[in-house]
């Protein structure tokens, strides 16, 4: 449930993440970050900066080498595999660059996926999915397979899916990376709508133009937070334009 | 995730690859079909043979000299008697006195002694000699319904014989009642008139209908003249003695009568005095048990071959499921990102494997029954549906799915969602 309590939806404390890839690679080197409920934050950085690692940790797909990641009040590292899965299914909504829809499920069925794992009744989740697809403008594409939809339409299905369980947090990983600029703008506007309805949004991108849709931009380089900017939506933020 | 949703999603994955799924199912169909074919045909033959035997011989008690291991469970073939020539392993010990005493046992309707005469003999008709067995027996061996033509000989009268239709058919010339046969015994030939032609005689040890080419003569006088003898302890003289006799018991008193017959042989009989091993008393029910036991063994053995085919099918499922797990790595990642627990991922893949196995059973069982039905019709035996085996085959289909799907499903559950989401 999207809440507006004062408790942060995500809190990252002194997080380090190392990988063993022939030698030890430090992807995150002591990161502290807080996301308030209902906030809209972009994490920006070049590839290899550690932003994807941060996303995986916050998305409860991975656990830190040291430090704590607390999502919706749960310390991710302390959860069982099943509890982490439930957290992903009900408290977090994922949006990916490559859409990641199930190829043999229709638009409606893709949207109901998190609800299915949360054991919703079939008719309830169909109603919910139809509503969400109508909200993103796909009310006439309910029973189409992903391959029958354009890239922009697929991403809108993915957004509807991310919103299905009404999670506190939406994680969007380069959501406009595989669509044209105009479609990208539509998608960013849908994310803004979601944020306006109270879902915290965490946007990961390497493009400043996209990052500036958020209220706050966290710049990550070489596994550490370089700086945090507030975005004034009336005038462009300071800093280099890409 | 609810079970119904899991099955639906698993089914969707399978129908997404129709040809591949169908080919995988074919392996299971062959295995289960083979099991059902052999089981249904075997069961049909068993039911038919046992039914026929019970119909004709339900009230018969067979007495054979010596211990020939007719008891069910003895020996490699479950104790089924070997049809054939008793002379090779039984000694003459049932004296004429014993036969007479057995007629007096409570519950015995008739006693049919049976003894071969001069195994080297040939039977000649119009110049054509055939090596038919000449067997001495009593008129009770020929129930009215067994006669195709004519009637029985009379006990105590020489010069007439009964023959089976198989024996008659062996001659080029047509034999009918009233024709004359020459029994060419080694010392001197005997001439007999054909009194009757029968389908078969009671009291043979041949269990499968006695379709033998045999010529029958009355024990008196022929067996007394040409047959074997033994000393009758009760009467103090040597007299004609048989290797086997068939007792016809009152139909509803077979078991009690069999007990009384056994008691006679344990106590006062000549046979007990003559024979080291005594006699074997066997009712049709015992023999039917023996046949059933043998056929059960055969059905199990042959159906076991079907299990091998099923094993091959199981490897087919395992193989295709492993391919499927690799192909759908990304889907696994998507499901995990959307809240799928490891055991739910495992359940989905296991459900696919079980559906494949079940589909194999659903197609294989009717197919096997159809072929079994065809084989039974061809063999001219009544068709019996082996319900037990149908259940076994269904369970085997499911079990095959579970066993062969277990490892691929476990692999699927262990897929790392981060790697999987990045997988192309």
Describe the structure in your own words.
The complex is a heterodimer of chains A (242) and B (424). Chain A has seven helices and ten strands. Chain A is α/β, with parallel strands linked by helices. Chain A has a domain of 122 residues: Rossmann fold. The N and C termini of chain A lie far apart (36 Å). Chain B is of the alpha+beta class and 424 residues long. Among the domains of chain B are: 181 residues, no CATH class; 109 residues, no CATH class. Chain B contains twelve helices and 15 strands. In chain B, the strands form two sheets. In chain B, strands 1, 3, 4, 5, 6, 7, 8, 9, 10, 11, 14 and 15 form a twelve-stranded mixed beta sheet that branches. In chain B, a hairpin with a 5-residue loop joins β9 and β10. In chain B, α10 runs antiparallel to α11. Chain B starts with a helix and ends with a helix. The chains are: A alpha/beta (242), B alpha+beta (424). At the A-B interface, α2 and α3 of A face α1, α9, α10 and α12 of B.
């Amino acid at each position: 449930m999207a809440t507006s309590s004062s408790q942060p939806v995500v809190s990252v404390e002194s997080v380090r993440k190392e990988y063993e890839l022939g030698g030890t690679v430090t992807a995150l080197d002591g990161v502290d970050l807080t996301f308030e409920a209902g906030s809209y934050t972009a994490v920006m950085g070049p590839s290899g900066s550690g932003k994807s690692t941060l996303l995986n940790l916050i998305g409860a797909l991975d656990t830190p080498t040291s430090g704590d990641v607390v999502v919706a009040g749960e310390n991710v590292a302390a959860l069982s595999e099943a509890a982490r899965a439930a957290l992903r299914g009900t408290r977090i909504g994922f949006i990916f660059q490559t859409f990641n829809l199930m190829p043999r499920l229709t638009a409606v069925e893709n949207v109901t996926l998190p609800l299915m794992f949360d054991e919703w009744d079939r008719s309830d989740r169909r109603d919910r999915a139809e509503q969400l697809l109508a909200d993103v403008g796909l009310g006439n594409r309910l029973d189409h397979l992903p391959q029958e939809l354009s890239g922009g339409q697929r991403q809108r299905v993915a957004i509807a899916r991310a919103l299905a369980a009404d999670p506190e947090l939406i994680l969007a990983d380069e959501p406009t990376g595989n669509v044209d600029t105009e479609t990208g703008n539509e998608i960013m506007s849908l994310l803004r709508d979601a944020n306006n309805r109270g879902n915290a949004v965490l946007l990961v991108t390497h493009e400043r133009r996209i990052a500036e849709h958020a209220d706050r931009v966290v710049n990550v380089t070489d596994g550490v937070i370089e700086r945090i900017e507030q975005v004034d939506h009336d005038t462009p933020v300071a800093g280099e334009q890409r | 995730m609810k079970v119904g949703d899991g099955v639906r999603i698993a089914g969707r994955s399978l129908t997404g690859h129709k040809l591949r799924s169908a080919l995988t199912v074919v392996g299971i169909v062959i295995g289960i079909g083979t099991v059902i074919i052999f089981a249904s045909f075997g069961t049909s033959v068993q039911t038919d043979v046992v039914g026929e035997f019970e119909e004709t011989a339900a009230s018969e008690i067979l007495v054979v000299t010596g211990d020939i291991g007719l008891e069910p469970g003895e020996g490699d073939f479950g104790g089924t008697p070997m049809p054939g020539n008793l002379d090779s392993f039984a000694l003459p010990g049932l004296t004429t006195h014993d036969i007479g005493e057995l007629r007096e046992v409570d519950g015995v309707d008739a006693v049919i002694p049976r003894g071969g005469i001069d195994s080297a003999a040939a039977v000649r008709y119009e110049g054509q000699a055939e090596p038919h067995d000449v067997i001495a027996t009593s008129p009770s061996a020929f129930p009215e319904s067994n006669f195709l033509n004519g009637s029985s000989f009379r006990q105590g009268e020489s010069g007439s014989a009964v023959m089976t239709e198989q024996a008659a058919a062996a001659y080029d010339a047509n034999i009918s009642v009233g024709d004359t046969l020459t029994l060419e015994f080694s010392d001197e030939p005997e001439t007999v008139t054909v009194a009757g032609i029968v389908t078969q005689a009671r009291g043979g040890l041949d269990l499968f209908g006695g379709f033998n080419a045999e010529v029958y003569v009355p024990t008196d006088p022929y067996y007394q003249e040409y047959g074997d003898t033994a000393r009758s302890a009760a009467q103090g003289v040597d007299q004609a003695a048989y290797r086997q006799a068939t007792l016809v018991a009152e139909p509803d008193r077979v078991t009690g009568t069999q007990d009384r017959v056994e008691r006679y042989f344990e106590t006062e009989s000549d046979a007990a005095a003559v024979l080291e091993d005594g006699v074997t008393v066997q009712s049709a029910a015992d023999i039917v048990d023996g046949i059933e036991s043998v056929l059960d063994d055969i059905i199990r053995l042959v159906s076991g071959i079907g299990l091998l085919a099923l094993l091959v099918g199981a490897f087919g499922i395992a193989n295709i499921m492993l391919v499927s797990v690799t192909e759908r790595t990304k889907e696994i990642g998507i499901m995990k990102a959307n809240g799928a627990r490891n055991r739910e991922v495992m359940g989905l893949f296991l459900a696919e494997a079980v559906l494949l196995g079940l589909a194999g059973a659903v197609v294989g069982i009717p197919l096997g029954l159809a072929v079994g039905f065809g084989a039974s019709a061809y063999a001219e035996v009544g068709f019996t549906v082996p319900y037990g085996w149908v259940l076994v085959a269904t369970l085997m289909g499911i079990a095959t799915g579970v066993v062969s799907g277990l490892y691929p499903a476990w692999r699927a559950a262990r897929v790392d969602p981060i790697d999987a989401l990045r997988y192309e």
